[in-house]
Amino acid sequence: MPKPVNTSASRREESPAAATGPVDKALAVLDALVQPDAPHRLADLAARTGLPKPTVHRLLHTFAEAGYAVPGPGGTYQAGPRLLGLAATALAASSELRLARPVLDDLRLRTGHLAHFSVRDGAVAVHVTQSEPSATYRMPLTAGGEVPLYCSAVGWAMLSALPSPAAAELLGTEQLPARTARTVRDPEAVLAALPAVRERGYAVDDEYAEQDVRAIAAPVLGPGNRVAGAVGIVGLTFTLDEESVAVLGPMVRAAAGTVTAALRGGAGALGIVRGQE
């Protein structure tokens, strides 16, 4: 499989060089530190953030002293207990995730596929929680992993629920990077596909983000029809085949509808969603 679903390359709409202030630089290093491919080498963190190695090293030393980073063998670093504790506290405090998790468990049991809940951060989808079946084939998707909106089922689902001008702004006008041979690279083509997604209530990623991987997702809406995220399932193409999409798609749509109804019943809008709507 050529490219992992979990990538931070396109997470930010701005370039790493935008991290010019001290707080920006610290946040950029923390953001790189929590990416899934830990432990991270100093050179990799510097390359990912666009910051000089001495700057990254100084920040890592400060983080390590405060418990936000842990140095490892060979000059590597990974997230420390203080940082992990903050993440756990934030997740535990989210009523939205608490509402989504039992729905994901039910969806996973009924479909046999990994079920997940994702939110939008600018032009990417961030996977925040999932329910994973015990299967021989493990999917390359983890909580905290990211995938661009334009080439993912959760991305298309959320784009379909946004006003058309907002979706167009997120997609831009330039040719989009190819993740696989099947990636839809023309922003106009993605926009043209969204009405059909909106009509049937779910989107299908047919190997757009990763070869041999298919996904189905439906948008989750909060009060005032605000896009709160998306519920999806993902599987290898030989287990999640084209024939099963017609059966499983409505199940994903119903699961997203359950989370939507719960959010509108008093949980509130998902506070961790960022970006223009």
UniProtKB/TrEMBL annotation:
Keywords: DNA-binding, Transcription, Transcription regulation. Residues 82-265 form the IclR-ED domain. SMART domains: HTH_ICLR. GO terms for molecular function: DNA binding; DNA-binding transcription factor activity. InterPro entries: GAF-like_dom_sf, HTH_MetabolicPath_Reg, Tscrpt_reg_IclR_C, Tscrpt_reg_IclR_N, WH-like_DNA-bd_sf, WH_DNA-bd_sf. Residues 20-81 form the HTH iclR-type domain. It comes from the Bacteria. Residues 1-21 are annotated as: Disordered. Gene3D superfamilies: 3.30.450.40, Winged helix-like DNA-binding domain superfamily/Winged helix DNA-binding domain. One of its GO terms (biological process) is negative regulation of DNA-templated transcription. PANTHER family: HELIX-TURN-HELIX TRANSCRIPTIONAL REGULATOR, ICLR FAMILY, HTH-TYPE TRANSCRIPTIONAL REPRESSOR ALLR. This is IclR family transcriptional regulator. The lineage of its organism: Bacteria, Bacillati, Actinomycetota, Actinomycetes, Kitasatosporales.
